[in-house]
Structures are given as C-alpha cells and as structure tokens.
Amino acid sequence: MAVFPQLRLRRLRRTESLRALVRENRVDIDDLIYPLFVVEGEGVRQEISSMPGIFRFSPDQLPQEAEEVARLGIPAVIVFGIPEHKDEFGSAAYHPEGVVQQAIRTIKKSVPKLLVVTDVCLCEYTTHGHCGVVANGDVDNDQTLPLLAKTAVSYVKAGADIVAPSDMMDGRVKAIRVVLDEAGFEHIPILAYAAKYASAFYGPFREAAESTPQFGDRCSYQMDPPNLREALREIEQDINEGADIIMVKPALAYLDVIRRARDTFNYPLAAYNVSGEYTMVKAATQQGWLEEKRVVMEILTSIKRAGADIIITYHAKDVAQWLQP
Asked: Is the pTM of this model over 0.90?
C-alpha cells in the first residue's frame, strides 16, 4: 500500500469540483418529506412558537402551501391533524369529515401529484393525549387496533397515498393491512414507525399537535432509548406484518439504529428528523452561534450516511431551496 508522500488523500479535497466528484453520500430533494399541521376552521396560518418557520394551517390555507412544496420539488408531505373536539376514543381521527380528511382532499385537488402521507395515531384526538384507548389507567393495545385500522381506511378513502402508523401498538401493521385489503386498497403502502423511541426530542411537536399526555408518559409503548437489539425485533415484526417502508424515529440521536436497520433489512428505510432536532438548530442559528445551512446539511447528510433512504424533516423547504440548481 502506498504511503506518504506518494499517498496524499488531500489531493481529492483541493477544490469543490474534486470533492463533489468523489462525494459518497448526497441529500437529494427526492429524499424529503415535509410535515404539515392542520387545524379546523378557516383563514388559519399560525406559527408554532417553539418551531420557528413552521405553521398550523386550516384546510383552506393548504393549496398555497402544497403548491409551494411541489414547486420546490419536494415529492411528499405528511399530515398531522389537530381537531376541534376530542374524546376518549379519538373519534375525530376516523370521522369522514375530520380535519385530516379535509386536508387530504384539499391537497390532492390542488396538487394531485404531491404524495400525501398520513400519520395514523390517536394521540392528537384523545382527551387524555395517549396513542390508544385507555382502560384501567393503561393504554389497551388490542382495543386500539380496530380504531387505528378504521382511521387508516378513512384517510385512504379521502385520497391518502401512504398511511404511516406511529402509535407503537403491537400488531397494528397487520390490523391496518388486513382492513385496507378488505376495503380494496391492496395498492396502498404502509410506512411503519417501526422503531419509535420514547424520546425527549418530541417536546415542540407536542405543542404543535396539542398531543401532550394528560397523565403518565408513553414509555410503556414507545421504545426505551438504550435498546438497539429490540429495535431490530420491532422492525422485523412490522415487516412480517406487511410494512412496505420502515422508519426509525428520532434520527440524530439514533444514527446507530438507522445503520443497523440498513445493514439488516433490505427495505426502504425512513428516518424522522424530529421537532426537537429542528428547534435546537433554529435556536442556535438565531443566536448566531451556528451557520444554519451548513449545520442542517451536515445533519441530514449524516442521516443519509447512516443508511436512510427517506428523511422526514421540517427543514425540507429550506433544503429544497438550497439544492436548487
């Protein structure tokens, strides 16, 4: 093997053109999914205080936003709904005229080619803020499954292209797959939040989606952050139940999980660059402590380098603008 001075690794770093020529990983606009928060009402475009640059929209305000996302070349959005009325069973999630259903129809009417992914969970819709039915002070896994499946079918009937269960109930992928198939939606993919951790990085999202648990926490169903081998079991179970795309959430503190998932499973792999990761960057850059573009691109590149094919990120619109030729 050649050694210095014959081997000079800096030769290929001398100019940007050389660096680009041998670059091993790239973030592309086609990799990105942009989250949208939708509230009931009209004329609402409300910035989320803990997430600068991210807004809650009423359905009538979505065409302009969807058109901008599509114009930037971002291929997909993922929709989260905040209903006006909540109950113990999250019935607004699967109501035919629910806020997400309205949002789907509005987006598909204004930008038909934009992929609409829908988060399937009950936390935003329940009075207690948990991701399933609460019985005897605990989240009842099996009572929750039919409601998640009902929600997924309702979203697809409204025009959703992909459903993404995020609740972390055991068996929910199979329950959704069976009901989708029975309803004639065999062609609809499931993007499973397969390894979703009980993370402290979700704080700003819970403000945005008004989904903070009213008692306890989500540690009995979301994954324990120290566990890696368990994540592989969760992912394998979701694949066996019919998941078409698997996801690790959060991304930045779980790059090792993304890497192991990539090495273990030959499936499309998504990662969620979550609200807390976004907010940390925004807070630091607003103070002038970090250079936003470089930091964001470095973070997203690390997620790609770890093995993710798809990145859900609140930075998507900025990144798309930066990547425009």
From this structure: yes
